[in-house]
Amino acid sequence: MNRAEKAALQLQAVAVLRMLKETRTYEELSDVTGLPAGDLNRYVNGHVLPGTDRASEVVESVGREALADELIARVEFDDEGYVDNSGVVFDQSFLDLVAPVAAETFEFESPDVVLTAATDGITLGAAMASFFDARLAYAKKSKETAVEEFIESRQRLASGIELTYYLPASAVNAGDTVLVVDDLIRSGETQELLLDIALQGDADVTGVFALIAVGDEGMDRAREITDAPVGALTTFE
């Protein structure tokens, strides 16, 4: 890890601690993190940065648990099982904290392209692309008028509906590394289409990440397609 990477990790840890401090005293924050309250005070107020080992622990362990708890508090299910995650996907500052935690937790390799599906996946995709300094690409269910060449992936769903996604062919180059992300994974059908688009573009998949997994079906489906890491911030049964 070079000096710039260490500094970025330390600043990410401080951002996580500041988020946690919004609803906790320093003593409560100490109970959550296992760190002395005095040290936490100095970190949160910007007087000193945590060491790299401590910063890594905050981002990977404490950060994931805290963000998962926050995510659970923001997500709502209706009587038919539909998910309302607007309290998450519309909060870019929250998603900006998710990106480093996901990267540390699942050890995703830095991709050239972050690929997602329009529209709810775009804000998460933007956060991940910014963190990795990668390009953002998103597939849509309709073709862009001015684009001539597309990568197209089509699948007939169990319901009988045919789902098709289109990505401008120039968005992914042969040999690119691609991280597939989405806000939600349930059946895995959307992620399968995105993975197919990446493979059609002769790209190498470095991972699949979702904010929310509903059950295991979608995660298992993604793991059958790729050997790259597959993970979700939190899972609802």
TrEMBL record:
SUPFAM superfamilies found in the cross-reference section: PRTase-like
Entry GO MF terms: glycosyltransferase activity
Keywords, ordered alphabetically: Glycosyltransferase, Transferase
Coiled-coil segments on the chain, per record: none
Ranges where the Phosphoribosyltransferase domain occurs: 93-203
The keyword Glycosyltransferase belongs to this UniProt entry's keyword annotation: yes
One Pfam match: Pribosyltran
UniProt entry tagged with the keyword Transmembrane helix: no
Entries under PANTHER family matching the protein: ADENINE PHOSPHORIBOSYLTRANSFERASE, FUSED TO N-TERMINAL DNA-BINDING DOMAIN, HYPOXANTHINE/GUANINE PHOSPHORIBOSYLTRANSFERASE
NCBIfam families: PRK08558.1 (NF006328)
Name of the protein in its database record: Phosphoribosyltransferase family protein
Organism name: Halorubrum miltondacostae
